[in-house]
Amino acid sequence: MTTTAAQAELLRSLHIPGSPLIVTNVWDAITAKIVAGAPGVKALATASHAVSFAQGVEDGEGLTVEQALAAATLVISSVDVPVSIDFEKGYAPDASGVQRNVERLISVGAAGLNIEDSIGQAKAPLFDLDTAVSRVAAARAAGNATGVPIVINARVDSLAGGGEWDDAITRANAYLGAGADCVFMLGLGDEARVARALAEINGKVSVISNPTSVPLRTLAELGVSRVSFGPGILGLTLAHLRAATTQLTALGDYPAELGFSY
């Protein structure tokens, strides 16, 4: 636990407004090793979508908690850098179950986790505010109980689910008050929205990006603390694989990456 606690403290220190932690999301041992070995990488984060699809099930807690913990263990044990686990809704119907499961997640070495506030597979409906806050607080209680200050990246699905701006901000600040270290705001699709969220949220902000998002340098200049790419990294990997397969099947040139050493 001492090592995990140190990893958690290190992970927390990497969330710097204006110099954001960039996490290229991984889903298994080999992607974890490759990403961890890339220049500049200081921490990893899994993406539940990628982890689930790699195991042949749908995202949205298609995995059992046992499978989720096994997948987390595989990634964490493959690298030396801190790892944050996308833990979906905590794999439990209530706050006490969330605490138990997060304690188990900490026991396999997780330095951080994502926890989300939508109920089903879609981004709506959401848990009512009190329930959602209690689940974030339960994750923090798990850290306190184990002596590991696990880094909580609390996801706010209001905007992505068609909800109102004021609800999203209320939730963000409530989650921070319940012990979250960072708020993971979905639905910040343009620079104005990012800037407004940063002005109205009383803590650090994490965003997800893709080719249509605000440029990374601009996100840094605005003061974002963390950027991830979710299932986009799986898509990037599969797109390269399909392109190479097409080239080889057509008796084309050998792709240079075919000689990649891992």
Write up this protein.
With 262 residues, the chain is an alpha/beta fold. It has a single domain, classed as Phosphoenolpyruvate-binding domains (TIM Barrel). It is built from ten helices and eight strands. The chain has helices at 2-13, 29-36, 48-54, 65-76, 95-107, 129-146, 165-177, 191-200, 216-222, 232-249; strands at 21-23, 44-45, 83-86, 112-115, 151-156, 182-185, 204-208, 226-228. Strands 1-8-7-6-5-4-3-2 form an eight-stranded parallel β-sheet. Helix 5 (95-107) packs parallel to helix 6. The longest helix is centred in the middle third of the chain and has 18 residues, at 129-146. It is globular. The model has no long low-confidence stretch (mean pLDDT 97).
Poorly predicted ranges (pLDDT <50, ≥5 residues)? none
**DSSP E strands, number:** 8
> What fraction, in percent, of the residue positions are helical?
40-55%
As a whole number of angstroms, the C-alpha radius of gyration is 18 Å
The CATH superfamily turns out to be Phosphoenolpyruvate-binding domains
Q: Termini, distance in Å? A: 30 Å
How confident overall, as mean pLDDT?
97
Q: How many domains, as an integer? A: 1
Please trace the helix and strand order, writing H or E for each element: HEHEHHEHEHEHEHEHEH
Level-1 CATH class name: Alpha Beta
Q: CATH topology, what is it called? A: TIM Barrel
- What count of helical segments does DSSP give? 10
Shape: globular
**Biggest sheet, in brief?**
8 strands, parallel
Largest sheet: spatial strand order: 1-8-7-6-5-4-3-2
CATH architecture: Alpha-Beta Barrel
The SS-based structural class is alpha/beta
**Approximately how much beta-strand content do the residues carry?**
5-15%
